[in-house]
Amino acid sequence: MVEGSMAPEKMNENGYHEERAQEASIADMIQRFEQEYMGRSSRYIGVYLVKDIAVVRARGMLSPAERQLASTHEGRVLIKQLWVKEMEGLKPVLLYRLDCAIGIPLSGLTLDIDPREDEWIAVIRLRSGSSWD
Question: What is the sign, positive or negative, of the torsion defined by CA atoms of 67, 93, 57, 3?
Fold first, then answer.
């Protein structure tokens, strides 16, 4: 599921909104990445384009056991530590896959998880001088 954009809408040659197509491309790639590398995917992925960044909000990725674990402070700490460790190794792969999917040079990727809210956030930064147009 893809939602929202703060970027002005422009139509491409096929009559689709370019920003929406980019949002969908990012959301689809994130979903495939989660499935291939983590063995599951989020139930909701929202992508928001703002100037030279994209914000990705993925919700509903914890298993029932992890949601139970997230009900305590100690459990949330454990989930976050594990997720951060997993993403340390996978971040270069995710950055490469995003770069290929978007087709615009990227300068960085910042990731964080909130187990209490059952969501993770990614901020994708375009290389200086690049934009979503």
Answer: negative
CA distances in angstroms from 133 to 2, 45, 62, 112, listed in the order given: 19, 22, 34, 27
Cα 13 vs. chain centroid, distance in angstroms? 27
> What local confidence, expressed as pLDDT, does residue 132 receive?
78
| Separation of alpha carbons 82 and 59, rounded Å | 17
- Entry pTM: 0.81
| Position 18 confidence tier, pLDDT thresholds 50, 70, 90 | low
Average pLDDT over residues 33-58: 94
Closest by CA position to 47, among listed 128, 131, 122: 122
Q: Class of 18-126 per CATH?
A: alpha beta
Q: Who's near 118: CB < 8 A, 6+ residues apart? A: 59, 60, 61, 62, 67, 70
Which of 21, 8, 34 has the alpha carbon at shortest distance from 104? 21
Per-residue burial over 20-49, b if 16 or more Cβ lie within 10 Å, else e, is bebbbbbbebbbebbeeeeeebbeebbbbb
Structure-token match 């939602």, residue found: 3
